[in-house]
Amino acid sequence: MKAQNKPIEPTKSELEILQVLWEKGPLTVRLVNDELLKQKEVNYTTTLKLMQIMADKGILKRDESQMKHIYSVVEEEQETKAHLLDKFVDTMYKGSAGKLVMQLLGNKKTSQQELQDIKDLLKKLEE
């Protein structure tokens, strides 16, 4: 998903398509659109155009070897999410992951299991 080594930042609508493809694997536009329709009203032609743009940007690959074109994601899910999260933390929290975590824990009801998982992670990081 890099053009000249610069990460491409998907739009909100592109991220929705990426989520479908990460979850389901390579699909046709019709199948992606069917999955999106479970979440919101979206036209097939809109999904088609977005996926064509995403292929042009290098976010998606298009397999044209069959009658129906199959689209797949170029970059791994974790790479995309890590880049977007880093940018978010840099922009909103001046690079401080700690400030982000403190706000998240302060704003949301965190389960006992989640708290224990966080404590376990912190112990591993201290070792």
| Number of helical elements | 6
Given the helix and strand composition, which structural class is it?
mainly alpha
Mean pLDDT: 90
Strand numbers in spatial order across the main sheet: 1-2
Cα-based radius of gyration, to the nearest Å: 18 Å
List the secondary-structure elements in sequence, H or E. Answer: EEHHHEEHHH
Summarize the main sheet.
Answer: 2 strands, antiparallel
Report the β-strand fraction as a percent range.
5-15%
For the secondary structure, the number of strands is 4
- Percent of residues in helices: 55-70%
Folded structure, characterized:
This protein is mostly helical. The protein has six helices and four strands, in the order ββαααββααα. The strands form two sheets. A two-stranded antiparallel sheet has the order 1-2. Strand 1 and strand 2 (6-7) form a beta hairpin. The chain is elongated and about 55 Å long. The model has no long low-confidence stretch (mean pLDDT 90).
Topology (elements, then pairings):
Blueprint: E1 2-3, E2 6-7, H1 12-24, H2 29-37, H3 44-57, E3 60-63, E4 70-73, H4 77-93, H5 97-107, H6 112-126
Antiparallel strand pairs: 1-2, 3-4
Can you tag this structure with a few keywords?
mainly alpha, single chain, 127 residues, two-stranded antiparallel ribbon, 9% strand, 4 strands
Please sum up the structure shown:
This protein has 127 residues and is mainly alpha-helical. The chain has helices at 12-24, 29-37, 44-57, 77-93, 97-107, 112-126, and strands at 2-3, 6-7, 60-63, 70-73.
